[in-house]
Write a structure and sequence with these properties.
Length: 333
C-alpha cells in the first residue's frame, strides 16, 4: 500500500505540473493532502472488509462502500486543501472545483481496486485454510484407518496361536511353554515396530523369522519355508505386510494336507520395485479353509491408502500352486 500511495502522489504531481502547469507549491500541497486522505480512506475500506468478510464478498456491498468513501475522500481533501492554501489558493481553488468530478472517478477507481484486491486476498486465504484443513483431516482419517487395519490383522494370528497353545498344554506341555515364550517375544517386537512408516527389508525378514519360529512349534517338520533374497540392502517397506500373506500361504498349503509342505519366498528389486513372490501348494478341488480372506483384503486396502494404487498385490491360482505377488514402490517408500 505505501507503494500505491507514492505512485498516486507522483502521478498527480506530474499531471498537475506538466499538463495543467500548476505552480510547485500548490501541486505538492494538493498531492500530499489527496494521498493522505486517500490512504486513510483505504485503511477504512480494508478494515470494513476484514471486519465483515461475509458482506464484503457481495459485489453490491463493495460497490456501495467504495462510492461512499470516494465521495467522503474528495470532500475532505477539498476542504483541507482550501484551508491549507488560504489566500494563496484564490486562483487555484476554481481549478479544484472544476476537477472535482474527475477526482471522484479516479478516487473511486482506486478504492474499488483496493476493495477487489482485499476481497480476493481474503477469499484466497480462506480457501487455502479450508484446503489445508481438508488435507489434514484426510491424513488423520487415512492414518486412523491404517492403524485400524494393522490392529485387525494381528488377532488372526494370535487366535490361532492361542488355540494351538491350548491344545499343546494337554499333550505336549513343554512345547506349549516354548510357544508361549516365542509368542511373547514376537508380540513385544510388534509393539516396538508400531508407528514406523517403513522398515529395512532385513528387519521385516527378521520379524518373519520370529513368526515362523512360532509356526514351527505348531506344525513341526511339516512346514518348510525357503527364502531367496536378491533384494537391495537399502530396500524398505511398510511393516506388518508380509506376515499376513505368509500366514495365508501356510493355511492354504497345510489345509487338507497331511504331508510336508514347502513354501517359497522369492525377493528381488527391479525398476525401483521391491517384489515378493510367495508360492505355496494349493488343492484347487478342496474348499478354502474358514477364516481366510480378511488378511489379504486388509493388505490390499493398506497398499491403496499408502500408494494410491490397486495393482500392487496379485493373486494367482493354478491347479497345484497358489502364488501371491507383493510389490512395494521404492521411490515412494
Amino acid at each position: 500500500m505505501p507503494l500505491l500511495g507514492l505512485s498516486v502522489m507522483a502521478g498527480q504531481y506530474i499531471i498537475l505540473t506538466e499538463a495543467y502547469h500548476i505552480p510547485f507549491n500548490e501541486a505538492v500541497t494538493d498531492s500530499v493532502i489527496t494521498v493522505s486522505v486517500l490512504s486513510f480512506s483505504i485503511w477504512i475500506m480494508v478494515q470494513s472488509i476484514r471486519l465483515y468478510p461475509t458482506r464484503a464478498g457481495s459485489l453490491l456491498y463493495s460497490l456501495i462502500i467504495s462510492i461512499l468513501l470516494a465521495i467522503g475522500c474528495v470532500l475532505m481533501s477539498n476542504t483541507i486543501l482550501k484551508m491549507s492554501l488560504g489566500v494563496r489558493g484564490v486562483d487555484y481553488l476554481p481549478f479544484v472545483e472544476n476537477s472535482t468530478p474527475i477526482r471522484y472517478f479516479i478516487t473511486w477507481l482506486i478504492l474499488a481496486w483496493v476493495a477487489t484486491y482485499t476481497v480476493l486476498n481474503i477469499n484466497l486465504s480462506e480457501q487455502q485454510r479450508k484446503f489445508k484443513k481438508q488435507v489434514d483431516t484426510t491424513a488423520l482419517l487415512k492414518e486412523a484407518e491404517l492403524f485400524k487395519l494393522r490392529q485387525q490383522l494381528q488377532p488372526h494370528f494370535l487366535y490361532n496361536s492361542l488355540n494351538s497353545i491350548s491344545a499343546l498344554t494337554i499333550v505336549e506341555p513343554d512345547k506349549a511353554q516354548e510357544m508361549i515364550g516365542r509368542l511373547s517375544d514376537f508380540l513385544r517386537n510388534s509393539v516396538k515396530r508400531e508407528g514406523k512408516e517403513n522398515v529395512p527389508i532385513q528387519e521385516e525378514l527378521e520379524y518373519l523369522e520370529n513368526y515362523l519360529a512360532i509356526e514351527s512349534v505348531r506344525f513341526g517338520d511339516r512346514l518348510n519355508v525357503i527364502f531367496d533374497n536378491k533384494s537391495e540392502a537399502r530396500a524398505t517397506m511398510p511393516p506388518f505386510l508380509l506376515q499376513p500373506i505368509l500366514e495365508n500361504a501356510i493355511k492354504f498349503g497345510l489345509y487338507g494336507n497331511t504331508g510336508n509342505v514347502s513354501i517359497s519366498v522369492n525377493i528381488d528389486t527391479k525398476d525401483d520395485i521391491l517384489r515378493f513372490t510367495i508360492t505355496n501348494p494349493y488343492d484347487n478341488e478342496s474348499s478354502a479353509p474358514k477364516g481366510t480372506g480378511f488378511g489379504i483384503k486388509g493388505i490390499q486396502r493398506r497398499l491403496f491408502l499408502l500408494y494410491a494404487r490397486n495393482d500392487l498385490l496379485e493373486l494367482k491360482k493354478e491347479e497345484t500352486t497358489f502364488t501371491t505377488i507383493l510389490k512395494i514402490p521404492q521411490q515412494d517408500a
